[in-house]
C-alpha cells in the first residue's frame, strides 16, 4: 500500500500543517513508514510542529544539488517511522520556484519509497501549490466551518480542475482545441472549468469525455477543523453532497475535528498535540480520520505518472 | 461544475425514484437549507444568478413531485427520454385503502363483497336455514353454526355489515350482558341475518324471544 496525500485547502490558518503533523504521527503508529514534506515554500512551519528547531538537511540541499537524491534530505523525527523533509532553509525567494525545479521536486517525490507521503501545502491557489496537489489523484482538504474558508476551498477545487484540464489539454495533443480556447478567451485567460469542458465538448465530444473521465478519477476528502459548539453538525455532510452533485469528482467528508485550546499549548511546547493529549475528543477525531484514510487505501489507485 | 439542466428532479432533491411524499418533503426542506442564500455549506459556491436558478429548480422539483398527477407525467417523460427505467415507475403498490382484514388479497371492496355473497349462495344450506327459522326461539349459537357451515369468518361478516367483530362475537356466544343497546342490536341482527340469507324479520323476532328476560 502506498499513498501520496497532498493536504491543502486554500485558506491560511485552517490547520493544514497541524493536521499533517498529527496524521503523520498516527500513520506512523500504525507501523507505516511515513514521510512528511513541507511544501509550504516560504512559509515552512512543519518542523516546528514536530519539535525540530533546526533540521540538519532539507529541500534546499536537493535544489542546490548538494545531494542528488531527495531521499538524502529526509530527517528522522523523535517518533519512530516518522520523518520529514523540511523546506525551512530554502532561499528567501523559494516561494517563486522555477518551473524546472518544481518538476524536479514532483518527480523526486513520486520516486520516494515510503508507505505514506503527506504533502503539507501552502495557502492560496498559485501554480506551485496546485501542481504539488496534482502529484496524486487523492487529496485532503482542511476546511474550517467559516464562510471565508469554505469560499477558498471551493475556489481551490475549481483552480485544481482548471490546472488539471490545462495539463490534459497539453499532454493529449489537443493543440487545435487549445488554440481555439485561447482565441475565444478574453485576454488569453481561460474561463471556468465548466466553460472549458463545454467548449471542448462542442469542438470534439470524445476529447471532452476524456477530460471528464480524468476529473472523475480524483478522490478528494475533507475534514472540518476547529469545529466549535453550535456549528451545524451536518455541515460536512451537506458540503459533501453539494460537491458530489455539482463537481465532477468523488468527495468524501471524513470528520469534524473539534476546536481545542490545548492545540495552542502543544504548539508552544513544541510537542505534537496527539502525543501530548492522546485522549481528547480532538485526538479521537484525528484517529478516526486516519482509520478512514487507511481503510480506504485498499482500493485506492494512485496515479504515479503525472507528467507536467 | 455539472450542468443544472442535466439533473433530474430526483437528482436535485437526492431522493430515490420511488420516494414517498414524506421523503420528498424532507428532502425539500434539506435542499432549501443547503441552497438558501445564507447557507454556510454553499457559501460563495454560486453567483447570485446561478443560485437563483438552483432554487427555482428545487421549487419546480418539489411542486412536481408532491403532485401525484404531475409526478406521473414527469416520470413518463423521463422514461421516454431514457433517463430512468420503466420498471422503476411501474407498480407503485396500493394507493387506495383496502379492507382491514384482507391486506394484500384484494384491492377492491366490491369484488370482495361479491365473493362473499357468492360463497354464501354457493353452498347448499337451505336445510339448516329452514331448521333455524322453524325454531320458536333462536340463539346466537344457531347463527354461529350456520355461519361456520357456510364457511364464513367473523371478519368477512364484518367487511360486509361493518358490525364490530367483538359485537358479532357477543351475539354468537350469547353474552347478553355485553350486547349493544336494543335499537342497535335489532338492526345488527337483521344485517347479520341478511348476510346469512335468512329472512331478517323472522330471525329478529325469534332472536328477541331468546334473549327476553323470562
DSSP summary: helix tally of chain B: 12
Q: Please give the count of helices of chain A.
A: 13
Number of domains of chain A: 1
H/E element order of chain B: HHHHHHHHHHHH
Can you offer a commentary on this structure?
The complex is a heterodimer of chains A (308) and B (214). Chain A has 308 residues and is α/β, with parallel strands linked by helices. Chain A has helices at residues 16-29, 46-49, 59-63, 99-111, 127-133, 147-171, 175-184, 193-203, 205-216, 235-246, 262-268, 273-276, 281-296, and strands at 3-8, 34-39, 75-76, 82-85, 116-121, 138-143, 219-227, 250-258. Chain A has one domain (3-153, 218-296): P-loop containing nucleotide triphosphate hydrolases (Rossmann fold, 3-Layer(aba) Sandwich), CATH 3.40.50.300. Chain A contains 13 helices and eight strands. Chain B is an all-alpha fold. Chain B is built from twelve helices and no strands. In chain B, helix 2 (21-35) packs antiparallel against helix 3 (48-65), helix 8 (140-150) crosses helix 10 (165-173) and helix 11 packs across helix 12. Chain B is elongated and about 90 Å long. The interface between A and B is medium-sized, with 20 and 15 residues.
Amino acid at each position: 500500500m502506498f499513498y501520496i496525500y497532498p493536504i491543502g485547502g486554500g485558506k491560511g490558518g485552517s490547520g493544514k500543517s497541524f493536521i499533517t503533523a498529527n496524521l503523520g504521527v498516527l500513520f506512523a503508529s500504525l507501523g507505516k513508514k511515513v514521510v512528511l514534506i513541507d511544501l509550504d515554500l516560504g512559509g515552512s512551519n512543519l518542523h516546528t510542529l514536530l519539535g525540530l528547531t533546526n533540521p540538519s538537511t532539507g529541500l534546499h540541499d536537493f535544489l542546490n544539488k548538494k545531494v542528488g537524491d531527495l531521499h538524502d534530505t529526509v530527517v528522522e523525527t523523535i517518533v519512530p517511522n516518522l520523518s520529514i523533509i523540511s523546506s525551512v532553509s530554502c532561499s528567501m525567494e523559494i516561494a517563486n520556484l522555477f518551473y524546472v525545479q518544481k518538476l524536479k521536486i514532483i518527480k523526486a517525490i513520486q520516486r520516494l519509497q515510503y508507505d505514506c507521503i503527506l504533502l503539507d501545502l501552502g495557502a492560496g491557489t498559485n501554480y506551485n501549490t496546485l501542481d504539488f496537489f496534482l502529484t496524486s489523484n487523492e487529496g485532503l482538504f482542511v476546511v474550517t466551518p467559516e464562510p471565508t474558508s469554505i469560499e477558498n476551498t471551493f475556489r481551490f477545487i475549481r483552480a485544481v480542475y482548471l490546472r488539471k484540464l490545462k495539463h490534459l489539454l497539453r499532454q493529449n495533443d489537443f493543440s487545435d482545441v487549445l488554440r481555439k480556447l485561447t482565441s475565444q478567451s478574453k485576454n488569453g485567460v481561460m474561463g471556468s472549468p465548466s466553460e472549458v469542458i463545454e467548449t471542448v465538448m462542442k469542438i470534439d465530444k470524445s476529447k471532452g469525455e476524456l477530460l471528464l473521465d480524468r476529473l472523475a478519477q480524483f478522490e478528494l476528502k475533507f475534514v472540518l477543523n476547529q469545529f466549535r459548539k453550535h456549528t451545524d453538525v451536518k455541515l460536512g455532510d451537506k458540503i459533501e453532497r453539494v460537491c458530489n452533485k455539482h463537481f465532477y469528482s468523488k468527495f468524501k467528508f471524513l470528520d469534524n475535528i473539534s476546536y481545542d485550546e490545548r492545540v495552542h499549548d502543544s504548539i508552544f511546547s513544541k510537542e505534537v498535540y496527539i502525543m501530548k493529549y492522546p485522549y481528547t475528543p480532538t485526538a479521537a477525531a484525528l484517529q478516526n480520520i486516519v482509520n478512514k484514510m487507511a481503510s480506504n487505501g485498499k482500493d485506492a489507485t494512485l496515479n504515479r505518472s503525472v507528467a507536467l | 461544475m455539472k450542468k443544472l439542466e442535466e439533473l433530474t428532479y430526483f437528482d436535485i432533491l437526492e431522493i430515490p425514484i420511488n420516494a414517498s411524499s414524506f421523503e420528498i418533503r424532507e428532502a425539500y426542506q434539506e435542499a432549501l437549507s443547503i441552497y438558501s442564500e445564507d447557507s454556510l455549506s454553499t457559501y460563495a459556491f454560486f453567483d447570485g444568478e446561478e443560485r437563483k436558478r438552483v432554487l427555482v429548480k428545487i421549487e419546480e422539483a418539489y411542486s412536481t413531485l408532491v403532485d401525484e398527477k404531475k409526478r406521473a407525467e414527469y416520470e413518463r417523460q423521463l422514461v421516454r427520454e431514457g433517463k430512468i427505467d420503466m420498471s422503476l415507475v411501474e407498480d407503485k403498490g396500493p394507493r387506495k385503502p383496502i379492507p382491514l382484514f384482507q391486506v394484500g388479497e384484494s384491492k377492491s371492496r366490491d369484488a370482495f363483497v361479491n365473493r362473499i355473497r357468492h360463497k354464501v349462495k354457493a353452498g347448499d344450506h337451505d336445510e339448516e336455514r329452514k331448521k333455524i327459522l322453524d325454531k320458536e326461539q333462536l340463539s346466537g349459537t344457531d347463527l354461529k353454526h350456520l355461519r361456520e357451515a357456510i364457511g364464513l369468518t367473523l371478519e368477512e361478516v364484518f367487511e360486509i355489515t361493518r358490525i364490530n367483530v367483538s359485537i358479532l362475537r357477543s351475539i354468537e356466544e350469547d353474552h347478553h350482558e355485553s350486547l349493544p343497546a336494543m335499537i342497535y342490536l335489532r338492526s345488527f341482527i337483521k344485517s347479520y341475518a341478511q348476510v346469512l340469507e335468512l329472512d331478517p324479520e323472522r330471525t329478529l323476532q325469534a332472536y328477541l324471544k331468546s334473549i327476553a328476560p323470562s
